[in-house]
Structures are given as C-alpha cells and as structure tokens.
Amino acid sequence: MKRWLQRASRLRVTLWTLIVPPTVWAVHFLFSYLWAAISCEKIGEWALFPTAFAIGTVIALVLIVASGVIAWQQSRTPGDPPPHQEGTDIDRLRFLAYSTMLLAGLSFVAVLFTALPVIMLGDCR
Amino acid sequence: MSLHAQDDPALRAAQEDRLREVWKPPSGLFLRWTDTNNNRVGVWYTLTAFGFMLFAGVLALIMRTQLAVPDNDLVSANTFNQLFTLHGSVMMFLFAVPMFEAVSIILLPQLLGARDLPFPRLSAFGYWSFLIGGVFVAGSIFFNAAPDGGWFMYPPLTTRTDLSGLGADIWMLGLSFIEVSSVAAAVELIVGVLKCRPPGMRLNLMPLYAWYILVVAVMILFAFPPLIAGDLLFEMERLLNWPFFDAARGGDPLLWQHLFWIFGHPEVYIVFLPSIALFAMMIPTFAQRHLLGYPWIVLAAVGTAFLSFGLWVHHMFATGLPKISLAFFSAASEAVAIPTGVQIFAFIATLWAGKVKWSTPLLYASGSLAVFVIGGLTGVMVAIAPFDWQAHDTYFVVAHLHYVLIGGTLLPLFGGLYYYWPLITGKKLSDRLGRIAFWIMFVGINLTFFPMHLSGLEGMPRRVFTYPAELNIGWLNLASTAGSYLFATGVLVLVVDLALSPTRAKSPRNPWNAGTLEWLALPDDEDWGIRSVPLIESRYPIWDQKDFVAKVDEGRFFLPDAEEGRRETIVTSVLDAKPVSVIRLGGPSVKPMITAVALGSVFILTTYHLYLLAALGGVATLACVLWWLWDTAEIPEKPEKPIGHGMHLSLYRSGPAAPGWWAMFITMMADATAYSGLVFGYYFYWTVHPDFGEGFTGPGIAAPMIALAPSLASWALTLIAREVHARGHVMLARLLLIGGAAMAVVGLFAGLRCLDGLDPQVNVYPAIIWVLVIWTVAHAAVAVVMQLYTLARSLAGKMDPTHDADLRNITVYMHFFALTAIVTYMTIGWFPETGL
Amino acid sequence: MRGKHVAIAVLPACLLSACNRHQSTLAPFGADAADIRHLFIIMLVGAVIIAGAVALLMRHAVRAPEGAISHQKGMRIVLWLGGIIPTVVLMGLLAYSLPYMRPRPVAPADLQIAVDGEQFWWRVTYRPAGATSVDSANEIRIPTGRTVAFRLSAGDVVHSFWIPGLAGKMDMIPGRTNDLIVRADKPGRYRGQCAEFCGLSHALMAFDVIAMPPAAFDAWLAGQRRPAQARDGEGARLFAANGCNGCHAIAGVTAPTRIGPDLTHFGSRRTLAAGILPMTQAHVAAFIRHPEKTKPGVRMPSFPQLSDDQALALARYLQGLK
Questions:
Q1: Residues B381, C36: contact at Cβ < 8 Å?
Q2: Alpha-carbon span C58 to B567, nearest angstrom
Q3: Do the chains contact at B78 and C200, CB–CB below 8 Å?
Q4: Measured between alpha carbons, how far is B662 from B655 in angstroms, rounded to an integer?
Q5: Nearest C-alpha of chain A: how many angstroms from B329?
Q6: What is the DSSP letter of C109?
Q7: Rounded CA gap, B291 and B271, in Å?
Q8: CA A100, CA B296: separation in Å to the nearest integer?
Q9: Chains that touch B (3 or more CB pairs under 8 A)
Q10: Any idea which fold B657-830 has?
Q11: Which has fewest Cβ within 10 Å: C26, C106, C167, C307?
Q12: B683-696: pLDDT as tens digits
C-alpha cells in the first residue's frame, strides 16, 4: 500500500488528469443509460441487472476514489498554506491537485445519484 | 535590452510611436470595417447582439399584448407562432451565445495581458457570419416568412414541407451558419486561454473569467456539433426527402429531439456560466479582497460542464421512454444543482469576509442572484420527473426558464455593462439611472414571470396564441403583460443611460479599484492592448505586485516594442505559462468579411433551392479560405527576437507548440463530435427498430473495405511525408503528398461505390448510409485540397523542414479523417448485417 | 398597437377565485394528479424556506464589516452550505420522488382507450376487454375507481395528451405508442388540452373529459356501441351530397372512414371542434361553412356555398345524432 502510494505521488496532476473523475462519471452514466435503453428496447427487460451494474458502479467509484486520493496526496505537497495563489510550481501543482480532489468528490456523489434510480426502480416499466 | 533602457523617455516615446503605428486602425468609409482588432470587433459584436436582444424583446411584448386577455385576436395564430419561434431563437442564438463571445473577445486579451487574441481575423470572420446569418433569420419576419415551428423545431411538423414553409429552412440554414461562427469563436477562445497568457500566469493564477471561458468554449465544441448533425439530417429530409424523421419510412421523430437537446441543455449552461464569470470578476472588486475558494469555483465550472451533458433527456420526460432512463436524467439534473450552490455560496462568503463597497454593478449582481435562486429552485422541481409530467410545456416552465435566463444571463450582463463600461469607453454610466433601471426591471421581471408559475399549474400550455376565459387565468396573464411593459421600460431607461454616455466626462483609470489585469486599460484607450506584457505573480496583480501599473506603462516588462512593424503577442505554455514564442497576428483585412459573405451565400442560396448558385458560393468560399490561409504560417525574417530582460523567443513554432496546431486539433474535435451525432443516429435506428436494415441489400462488406484501404493509405502517406520532410527529404515528402492525395481521390470514388443500388428516399436505412458515406467522402475531398495546398506551399518556398506547420496541421486533420473512415466503413459494412 | 386591446381588458371579476376546477393541476380528480400535487407542495415549502434563507444570508453578508469571517470560516460555509447540505437535501428529494415514477399496475381486463392526436382533434377508440371497440372523437369518458390504460399515438405530427386534473402529460409521437395508466376518483366534467406545439391551431386542440361512476359508464359505453339514430331529411341529403361522408363516419349510416372525426354520437357531446365551441346549432352551422375562421390550419375544407338554411339543416341533422 505504501509503495503504491509512493508511486502514485510521483504521477503529476495536469489539466488532463483534472478531468479524470468527471470523465469516469460520464462513462458510467452513459453506459448505464445506453445499456438500459438498448436492453429495454431489444429484450424488454434490463439484462444482466443488477450484478453487472453493481460491479460497474463499484469500479467507477474505486477509480474516482483512487484519483481523489492521489490528488489529495499531491495537494499536501509541502509549502505555504492555502489558498495556493503563489506563482510557483508547487502552488500550481497543489491547486490542480486540490481541484481534482474536489471534482472527485462531486463525481463520487454524482455516481451515487446515478445509482439511486437503479436501486429504487431497476426495471423497464 | 536591460531595465535601464526603459528609463529613457525618448526611447519609450519612440516605442510608443511604433506600437501606435502598427496597431493603427484602418480608416475610411469602407476600410474601417476591415479592422480585426479585438477592441473594435468585440464592440461591433456586442452592439449587434444587444440590438438582437432588443428586437427579440419587442417580439415578446407583442406576444404579451396578445395574451393580455382571453380569446384575444390582436395577432393571428400564424403571426404568433412566428413571434415565439423567433423570440426564443433570437434570444438564444443571436443574443445569449454571441453576447458571451463578444464580451470575451473584448475582455479576454485584456485579462490575459495579450495584445490581441491569437486569430484576430477569425474573430472578424465570426462577427460577419453572425451579422449576415442573424439579419437573414431575424429579418424573415418582415416578409411573413419567419420560422414558426418553435425554437426546438420538432419534426415531423417542421420537416413536412406541406406543413411548414420556407421558415423552417431559414431557421435550419441560417442558424447552422451562425453555429459555425460560434464554433470558430470557441476555437479562438480556447487557444487564447491556453496559449496566450502572459508569462508567469500559471493555471492557478488565471482570472476566473478565463477559467469559465475555457470551460464554456469546450462545452460549445461538444454541444453545438450534434445540432449541426441534426440540422444536416433535417435539411436532407426537407430538401431531398430522405426519411430520417418520417415514421412511415423507418425514421423516428425522437432522434431529432435527442440531437437537439444534447445541444439544448448544455446550451443553457453555455449562456449561464459566462455571466457567473462576470460575477467572479465583480465580487472581489466590490468586496475588495480575493475571491474565496478559487479551486471550488474551478470545480463548479468543470463539474457543471460535465454534468450538463447528462441532462438532455429531462426535456423529454414526457416522450414515453422507459422510466429507468428518465430516472437517470432526473438524478443528474438534481446533481447539477450542487456545483451551482457551491458558486453562489463562494460569492456570498467572499462578500461576507470582505468590506462591501455598495455600487450599481453589485446591485445588479445581487438582484440577479435573487432572481436566479428562484429559477434554480423551480429547476430542481421540474427535474423531478413526476412533477415535470405536469409542469412540462406549460407556463410553469416558461416562468422557470425566464427566471434562470434573466437571473443567470441578462441581469449579470447588465451588471457587467455597468462594471465594464468605463473599461471600454473610459466613462462611467450614471449610478442613478442604473439604479432606477434596475428597480423598474426587477419589479417588472417578477410581475411578468411570477404569475406564470400559477397560470401553468392552472392548465395553461406553452406556445398557445390564445386561451379560453373559462380557465380563469385572464388576471394572471394581465399581470404578466403589465409586468412585461414595466420590464421593457426598465430596459429603455438603461438604453437611455447608454445613449447619454458620450456627453459625460472621462472617469479615472481603474475607477472601481479592481485588482485584475484588464483594468490596466487607460480611459483614452490605445489600440495596442497593453503597453508591455507583464510577468504575473498573483491572481490580483494590480493589488499585489509592487509598482505593477507603472512597470507595465513604462514598458519594463516584455515585448515593449514593435521593431519590425508587426502586430505581435507572446505565446506561453499551457500549465505554467512559460514563454514559448512570439507570434505575428493578422492585421486589418477584407478577407474575413468576403469569406463570410461567400459562406453565407452558400447557406442562403440553398434556402431558396438555388443549388447551382450555392455550389458556386461553395467554390468561392474554398477559394477565399485558401487565399486567406496563404499568408498564414509565414517563415519569419529571423529565427527569434528579443522581448526584453535578455530573453529571446522564437518567431516560428510548429506542432503542439503553435496556436495553429491547437486550432486545427480543436476544430477537428468539433468535427468528430458532429460526426458522432450521425453515427449515433445509425445505432439509434438499430436500437428502436427490430427490423433495421431488413429487406434491403446493404453495401456488403467488400465495397466498404475497398473504400477504407485507400483512405487509410492516404493517411499513412501523409504521416510518412511529415516524418521524411522533418528529416530534410523535401522531394520525397512532396511525392508522398501527391501519393496521399491520389489515394484520397481513390478512397472518395470507392466510397461512393458503396451507395450503388441504395435509394435514400425509400427507407431510413439506405438514407443514413448515404449520409455517413457522404460525410466521409466529403472529408476525403477536403483531404485532397489540404494535401495539394501543402504541396503548393512547399513549392512556393513557404514551407521547409524547419518551418513545417502546414504539414503538421494537415496531419492532425488526417488522423481524424482516418478515424472517420474507419468508423463509417466498419459500421456500414459489418453492422448490423453480420449479426454483431 | 396595444392601446385598444388593453383598454378593454378590465381586470376580470374572478380575481379572487384563482383556481378553475376543470383544467388545473391543483384541483385533481385522479390519483396520479393528487400524488403529484402532494409532491409539489412538499417541494414548494422547501423552496420557500431555501429562498428565504439564502436571501437573509446574502443580506447579512453584504452588511457584515470587513473581516467578519476568516478565510477558514468562509471555506466552511462554502463546503457545508454550498456542498454538503445541498447534496443531502437533493439526494433525499430524489429518493423520495423516485417511487412516484412507478406506473400504476395494469391488468389485461382493464379498459384500454386508444387516443390518436391529429391536427387539430383527437381520435378516440374505446377497447373494453372482451368486447368490440367503439369509435369516438374529441371527448373522453372514463369510469371512476377503475384503472384505465390510454394508448397514445399520433397520425401526423407530435402532440401531447394532457388532462391536468387526472395525471401528468404524455407525448403522442407518430410511429410510437405510449401508455398512460390512470385512475379517476371524482366524477365530473373536466378538460384536457394538447400540450406539445403542433401547428397553427395548437391552442385550439382541447377535449372534454367526463369521469362517471362505473355503472353509469358501462351503460353509456353500451349505448355508444349502438349505431347512430339518424333521421332522414334535408340534413341527411346535404351530408351525402356535399361529400361529408368521405371523411366523417356515422356508424350504421355511412361507410367506415377514418379521415375526420367520427360523428356517430356527435349530438351527445358537449362541445364542438375539439373542445372549442359550445354545441349549439348556430355554432355547428357556422363551423361547417367556415371552419378555418374558428381553427386556423384546420384540415376540413370550408363550405361557403351552403346557404344559412342549408347549414342549419345540416347542423340539426348532426345534433340529432345521439
């Protein structure tokens, strides 16, 4: 675990990694929607439900948490306290990391929002 | 050049003379309109969009007058339908989106300490396209030929030529033209934010306005193209009778609704976020402190952008889709309220922590926040699907959307107007008139739209030209009508205030004591944008950096001169804004205007079915584009130049370091998104029709594969050409380009062979194959043009192994072309016939 | 332009009676509309509380002296008020509302009513389980206390079927059939209206809804199954001579046709022209001669050649169809 975290902390957040958590939400959301739509239209019921959906949701949540944890690690790179507004490499890094962490939080909640209908409705009617 | 050199006033005066000369606007009755400077183009753009807003407002007043009493007959049903269609379309396409682009064209270079945006001529092209398309669409109502199918244009009402006339074509083609210019502006703004920041302005120091603009421009890239794809299918049905939305021949009206709302919902946030961005600039100024929670705002902007693409089906809650599908979108529609809440509370917390300087712009900001919160709360309500089944398409939704758009777009813009007017004209507007206008508008807005919640719940559907007295909603409607006149009066007061501005005296520089770069502008504005490009060390450099203003003014930062007599600005790296190069900007030119006229003629002539002339217009457009491009990516007279402080920057970059490469990449992202809209159509028909493709002989597998092979060969040859060219083998690269072009031609004709025996008018299956193939071969044709253009550049000596931007840019295009060819030919060849 | 029309617009006397009882989501007569009203009231209370709280907070924030809160405290406000509390409230609302999306269970024995939207009228077909179907138009009767399944589609363009007092709306889309399952609870006369913009006379596309006690409904439906009680005479002759039977069917009198609304029991309906005009002889006669004056864009051709007497005779004949 520790080694893994060390390796993760060597990854550097950029503008591209910033959008990883919401992209995971988008993929999860789109996949859920298309899968339900096609299944309902073609076979009249939601095939492979709920096992596959549960697995997919857990994977999405794990990916989001992982990117959030990596970002959290990097946002704690030593330096001055928030609000990270100095013109230094470290502050830019910590800003991006902190934003990524926040986005991971929002994406996590958004995936839970997507899962809620499945728990409560879960069929094609 | 050392710092000391700038101590010499004579030197500074000489520099200023040179800068003034270089940035001098063209004069003369006609030539002044060939200007491309962001200051002027932005102002034209803003005024035009403002004019369209007033026009659409008048349309609304006529509607409200008609609805003042039950069973009224002031205007006919026909006129009323044109009125509400144009009101919505003009407010969305000709006011809200262009206004954000216009304001950004003015502000962004100032905020980023740049002399201009990276592609000034593209801005000018966007403006002229907007003007031509806008006048074409809005003017149609004076000929009783305006679109009358609602701003959402649902087929089959709008695609059946017996049910809707020319208006539908005017909407589709006129607004497609404007969508193209919006995408052009998005390209400009993205590259501007990512590549044209001043040295040192790392991502964490960027003004929040720039963050919002970046996010919104990226949203445009993904939101507008699906609508362009939908427009294409729509016009194919209207002009060529291809049955994409005709249920009798396998089409489905719902496909349009999907494509429209995949555009339509992000659109709401596209017009909302830039106005919130204005808040993010104003609030710190009037709280006289840094904005609290900078990363939280970035989170909110990026999060909203993503979530907004997962909301579109909430406009389709009543279309009978499976409940589970609706529930997903209901959930996402609730979730999107979270980032919005974050933004609002970040602003409130900033005001709380700071020392509030009460002022007219802040009055507008707080008023709009109040209006917006009400709209947001009703938004949370209609996002709940069961409630929406009642509220949908009633006046409740009319009330909701106007609260959101007025609170989230219009009033913030008016606040921004009061805030930024001194920046643009050097004069403040009247605080007194501004307050009077605000309070009249504020009362008018609430009197107009609040009763609509109730009239909707009392059973009044939207888009009705009249309603019966028995519904007992006459008094609610009368209140709304009275309110609308009050609202209009407030707008009138504001217009009077603007009109009085020329009579007023200049205000001091930076009258609000703001901390961000744009306030470096002098009351008597110089056209050079900024005297010297500063080194940024803070989010609010005017407040935080010592002697900042004086250093900028005395040219003590970068690029204080224009020795070669060229318009220039600095290009920096994306993350940390490290200086990369100096680019030469296009000066005044008639080319953008002429190109816009040529492209406009294609759309307008097609509306009137003058296909031959439209084709000529297309050829003219191509010629104009090539004529325009021929001057770009020039090889500089020297490899690099000094920018001060002992730094030397390259004058030429190719590949990802160059703004042009990014422009191509971003444009192709939009292109690929439009294409994916068409592919979505193909799989959509397969999903909804169990018998999709049955009973038809498709193109088979062989023909598409035969078309795919040369298309990929053309891509590979171009790629190899780029590599060998970089290694100095110019002749070989030229031969490879010729080979690539030849292969693209072969691919083009082989692609057309896939269509043998398929009649697109019979059924949607052959029709959608036609569209995919036409899209692909059209891209092959463009590939040929690009390859031959690059060849010509090489032969003309405008490209050599160290100056190969053209070749690198077309390689980007070829990547996307190859992807398009693979998806098209794989789809039509292998799916669904082989039973995959 | 506005003066004349606004001048005559005196504030209606109904100022105090906000609600109408027959086309309002706030005056439900069906179970689904009642559920949704309940949901709405809960959300309304929540919205008022939130809007008030935000306004007060904003006022307080603007008036607070400089440095009234520290950076840390400000960030806690953003986190809690902007992030966590909205998340919890919205999630709760979503979870509370999702069960309302479940459609009412329906059995094969339940009455089906097929309704097709046409420009600008409603084609109605009652399909009771195990009995022959009955054609009608522009008026819908349903039994109270029983589940009814509407099967909705459209002939030409997209329409939307909306009876505000009964349930939410459902679109009618060419090439698709959507189900709307409802249950009426209170007998009475109500009104429904097209809610999706469908062309020139979108505003003039309504219908009467009559909820009846089950026994009365069964008797009524049995009556509808009988052919028309048509009288011979001038009106019948004109109906045939002017080709009315080419589009309009009168069961037992004319050959079946499905182009225009079924007129078999025309005289028993309360309104004319899809819920727009009262069913009086003068209105029927006037509508026959110039339908486009009442409904712009109507598909029915006008018959200006008919004299006043002829039009009245035709109207008498049609109103006799009960």
A1: no
A2: 46
A3: yes
A4: 8
A5: 8
A6: T
A7: 22
A8: 10
A9: A, C
A10: Four Helix Bundle (Hemerythrin (Met), subunit A) (1.20.120)
A11: C307
A12: 999 999 888 888 88
- Note whether C201 contacts B: Cβ–Cβ < 8 A: yes
User: Taking a contact as any Cβ pair under 8 Å apart, which residues of chain C between 1 and 30 contact chain B?
Assistant: 1-2, 5-6, 8-9, 11-12, 14-15, 17-20, 22-26
Query: What b/e sequence results for B604-631 when a residue is b if at least 16 CB atoms lie within 10 Å of its CB, and e otherwise?
Result: bbbbeeeeeebeebbebbbebbeebbee
Look at A113 and C91 and tell me if their CB atoms are within 8 Å.
Answer: yes
The answer, for A122 touching chain C at a CB cutoff of 8 Å, is no
Distance CA A76, CA B484 (A): 54
Alpha-helical runs (H) found in B160-202? 166-195
Are A82 and C71 an interchain contact pair (Cβ–Cβ within 8 Å)?
A: yes
Q: Give the span between the Cα atoms of B497 and B426, in whole angstroms.
A: 15
Q: Where are the domains of chain B?
A: 593-626, 657-830
Using pLDDT thresholds of 50, 70 and 90, give the confidence band for residue B733.
very high
Q: Is the pLDDT score of C10 beyond 70?
A: no
The per-residue pLDDT for range B520-537, each reduced to its tens digit, is: 998 887 889 899 999 999
Contacts of C95 in chain A (CB under 8 A): 116, 120
| Radius of gyration of chain C measured on its C-alpha atoms | 26
What is the CATH number for C203? 2.60.40.420
Is B204 in contact with A92 (Cβ distance < 8 A)? yes
Q: Give per-residue pLDDT as tens, C257-304.
A: 999 999 999 999 999 999 999 999 999 999 999 999 999 999 999 999
Flag whether residue A99 sits within 8 Å of chain B, measured between CB atoms: yes
Does the distance separating the beta carbons of B330 and A22 come in below 8 Å? no
Residue of B nearest to A105 (CA): B299
- Is residue C219 a part of any domain in this protein? no
Binding-site residues on chain B for chain A (CB distance < 8 A): 200, 202-205, 290, 292-296, 298-299, 302-303, 306-307, 309-310, 313, 321-325, 327-332, 334-335, 338-339, 536-539, 574-576, 687-688, 690
Question: Residue C20: pLDDT band by 50, 70, 90 thresholds?
Answer: confident
Residues C243 and C200 in one domain: no
| Alpha helices per DSSP H over B288-410 | 294-307, 323-335, 337-353, 360-382, 385-391, 395-405
